[in-house]
Specification:
Elements: E1 5-9, H1 13-24, E2 30-32, E3 37-42, E4 45-50, E5 58-61, H2 65-74, E6 78-88, E7 100-107, E8 113-120
Parallel strand pairs: 1-4, 5-8
Antiparallel strand pairs: 2-3, 3-4, 6-7, 7-8
Length: 121
């Protein structure tokens, strides 16, 4: 089994599409409006922006958490929690043993929280 799709609330579909295109560095793969749905491809999983979806808390892997948070801040996003160390992986259960797990949280254009995750050796 694999995760196929995650839906995220987007009251203003155009605004949300621009925000996620900036975050992901990618254009949508499909737009259906009406009824009000935009799809992005994110590492083999579809991200659906939908006017009727509930809010979800997404965690996205990034290579440079400080740079990504700064880029989003410069683009007008609110950084709710600056990049910070969460823990160091003791074993390979949730990430490579010995890697530090860093998180930051930003608010998307619709008020949803998005987690940024970087694992550092």
């Amino acid at each position: 089994m694999r995760l196929v799709q995650i839906a995220q609330r987007a009251e203003d579909l155009g605004r949300a599409t621009r925000w996620y295109a900036e975050l992901l560095g990618a254009r949508p793969v499909a737009v259906f409006d009406p009824p009000g749905m935009v799809f992005f491809e994110v590492g083999g999983t579809r991200l659906l922006l939908d006017r009727n979806a509930p809010a979800a808390l997404l965690y996205l892997a990034v290579d440079d958490i400080e740079g990504t948070a700064a880029r989003l801040r410069d683009a007008g996003a609110t950084v709710r929690s600056e990049p910070h160390l969460i823990f160091t992986h003791a074993d390979d259960t949730l990430g490579p043993a010995g890697a530090e797990e860093w998180h930051a949280f930003v608010e998307d254009s619709e008020g949803n929280l998005v987690g940024l995750v970087e694992q550092r050796r």
